[in-house]
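pipeline/complex-builder :: batch 7 item 3
reading input block
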Amino acid sequence: MIARPLMRIGVTGCTGRMGRLLVAEVLSSPDCELAGGCDRAGSAAIGEDVAAQAGLDPVGLTVGDDAEALFRSAEVIIDCTHPAATKNHLELAARHRTILVLGTTGLESEHHAAVDAAALETVVVQASNMGVGVNLLMTLIERATAVLGPGYDVEITDIHHRGKVDSPSGTAVMLGRLVAQERHQDFAEKARNVRHGATGPRRPGDIGFAVSRGGDAVGDHMVILAGHGERIELTQRAVSRALYAQGGIRAALWARDKPPGRYSMRNVLGFT
Amino acid sequence: MGRLLVQEVARTPGCAVGGGTGRPGSAIIGRDVAEGAGMAVTADGEALFAACDVVIDFSVASVAAESAALAARHGVPLVLGTSGIGTEDQAAIAAAGSRTAIVQPVNTSLGMNVVFALVKRAAAALGTDYDIEILGQQHRKKVDAPSGATLALARAAAAGREVDLGQVEQRGRRGAIGPRPAGAIGMATVSGGDLSVIHTVFFAGTGERLELTHRGTSRAIYTRGAVVAARWALGRPPGLYSMADVLGLA
């Protein structure tokens, strides 16, 4: 049997919190090699060693500011950066037929349209959350929502570290969308993001969000299904971001043999 | 539980209380089954099964086999919610199940049955990288532990992993017990307070944890489920059924 060549993975935003973890995971994975990393132009890290930026021994690859060069040289890019960069990265992936694992959160409908367009040319795994637990949670929520029916009110809580700048979390919104989809509801109409003051009684079918921010919490999500006399709570608590990076590598390796198209983390994990 | 079931049946559209029995010699014999129902509690099981379309029995394990035999003889479906039934009686119930529909729920709450199904699914998907622990929080008056629901959750987890619970379960940890064996399914119980009954299944992995929790705050969830099961059983072919069958979760 001929050993497969190592998968050459590039990391965008390689000096960011997720980027550094991704670099570390790629370097420690026996099936991968690091193609390189890039950061936004003007970053102080440009020209520094990619691995050193991640707190590891230098590997002789420097942080670049040319995303196109990275997309050209890598077999797959794992992108956990910012929505402002997403469209450009999707175009580059499509142009160079580079597999893209897109873990960036905060995507709007225009970004999702761009994902669909790029997926005509290359493999895009779009996953706001690359962890095993949250993706299994999604499967469980679909099942629970379908069986319990409209008599059970759905509320979603999210707890994250004090540095998180968007609320609710991308994962919380994704879970809410899933519930709305399962109930054939319009998510935008049913999402209740703020409750304050004399709100009046709960509107039937609402999907409520409650957000807490503090400390260094990596991220907890709880979906509550509240009925008469009972309540189900489905919770995922993350204490390490490494599991997201591991999920990203898993997605990259999975995507290798796939035809162009848009895929989810649940496709990767086989949770249907 | 019997009184709550009578109330539940009485307030369910399309259902009416057909009668009720109590233990021979009990003080409730001769009292009204339900206010205004115009019928008295008797000790005559035979007459009850002759008079009803379906019977719900949540009484005691010692009469479960007898209820099943009466159900079979009269061709009346039975919802048998009693726990703690012995092997011999269970065999008799299974035999009766070849002649009439018998629903034997571990727990009749809709929510808890959904959690059973989710636990099985999660255990199958996650594998043994994720340690499974079950915590039952029960009210101060409950006299046995772990609860039936805790054991049922453990069985659901074992079924998802395709292992025999007896081989992997861990209960009552204390002292220098050594590290956690790989693949163990642990059970623990806390007790206190009044009504609220909480069960949580933990799937504890590296860097993350999933928790599936059911909180019961009213016993109405059990009576409601029992009546759902009774209506489902009516007209069903003979067989021994679970709540998962009733709810389409099997």
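note: The first helix of chain A runs from residue 17 to 28.
queue -> next item
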